[in-house]
């Protein structure tokens, strides 16, 4: 074969390979750009749309990820702390019909801490909290427009009620009952507008009355009696006279 012809053949093959490399480079490069541009997008009205991901400044650690539909959160959002790696500390599942999200809080190790519902930034309905070292319920409480409303019930790890206290519009209003791990009533108080008002009763571990008295404006008021074996052993009157 003529040397010139052989050289041209090699050159043509080399050019073909170079062209193929350039072609695939452009294709894959375009795909990479497309995949990158598929996140953190805005619609024609300047509202967030599609998949959004944000990292902490100066870090590759995710701060949050989720989907928007024309400025509105939809589906599951995950929120991370700076040390979280791939375990979110908060998840929110949005219902597009009523803007209510099912929310869950986790420890950095992924254990469920609490869960409930939110509308915008307000808690609504029942919220449940769990004991640190188990899946047992620690507290149940109810919210209306972000404020406690109704009974807040706290539980011992064995499932027995620790305390029942009533709230209205975010403040204590009603009975406050406190129990032993065996379920014996230890304390019975009454709140009005977030202050102790009215009779107060205290019991021993066997349910025997040991102290009774009256509260006014969050302070002891009037006659207080102290019992032992069912008999009064001491009486005090409040407020104490100045010495």
- SS-based class: mainly beta
Strand segment count: 20
Strand content: over 45%
Q: What is the highest CATH level, the class of the largest domain?
A: Alpha Beta
Strand and helix order: HEEEEEEEEEEEEEEEEEEEE
Q: Into which percent range does the helicity of residues fall?
A: 10-25%
What does this structure look like?
It is a single chain. The protein is mainly beta and 243 residues long. Helix content is 14%, strand content 53%. The protein has three domains: 1-34; 41-108, no CATH class; 121-243, Outer Surface Protein A, domain 3 (Alpha-Beta Complex), CATH 3.90.930.1. Strand 17 (209-216) and strand 18 (219-220) form a beta hairpin.
Please specify the SSE layout and strand pairing.
Blueprint lengths: L2 H35 L3 E2 L5 E8 L6 E8 L2 E8 L10 E6 L4 E7 L5 E8 L2 E9 L6 E8 L2 E2 L1 E6 L5 E8 L2 E9 L5 E8 L2 E2 L1 E6 L5 E8 L2 E2 L1 E7 L2 E8 L5
Antiparallel strand pairs: 1-2, 2-3, 3-4, 4-5, 5-6, 6-7, 7-8, 8-9, 9-10, 9-11, 11-12, 12-13, 13-14, 14-15, 14-16, 16-17, 17-18, 17-19, 19-20
Name some characteristics of this structure.
mainly beta, disordered N terminus, 243 residues, Outer Surface Protein A, domain 3, 20-stranded antiparallel sheet, 1 helix
Could you write a compact summary of the structure shown?
The chain is 14% helix and 53% strand. The chain is mainly β.
């Amino acid at each position: 074969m003529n040397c010139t012809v052989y050289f041209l053949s090699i050159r043509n093959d080399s050019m073909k390979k170079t062209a193929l490399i350039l072609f695939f480079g452009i294709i894959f490069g375009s795909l990479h750009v497309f995949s990158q541009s598929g996140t953190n997008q805005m619609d024609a009205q300047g509202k967030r749309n599609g998949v959004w991901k944000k990292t902490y400044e100066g870090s590759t650690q995710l701060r949050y990820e989720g989907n928007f539909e024309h400025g509105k959160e939809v589906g599951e959002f995950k929120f991370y702390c700076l040390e979280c790696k791939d375990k979110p500390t908060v998840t929110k599942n949005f219902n597009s019909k009523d803007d209510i999200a099912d929310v869950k809080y986790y420890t950095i190790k992924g254990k469920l801490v609490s869960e409930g519902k939110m509308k915008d930034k307000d808690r609504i309905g029942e919220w449940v909290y769990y004991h640190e070292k188990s899946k047992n319920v620690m507290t149940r409480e109810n919210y209306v427009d972000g404020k406690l409303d109704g009974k807040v019930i706290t539980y011992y790890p064995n499932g027995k009620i620790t305390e029942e206290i009533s709230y209205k519009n975010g403040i204590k209003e009603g009975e406050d009952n406190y129990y032993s791990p065996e379920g014996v009533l230890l304390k019975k108080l009454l709140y009005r507008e977030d202050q102790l008002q009215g009779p107060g009763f205290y019991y021993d571990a066997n349910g025997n009355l040991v102290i009774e008295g009256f509260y006014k404006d969050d302070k002891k008021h009037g006659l207080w009696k102290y019992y032992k074996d069912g008999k009064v052993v001491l009486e005090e009157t409040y407020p104490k006279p100045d010495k």
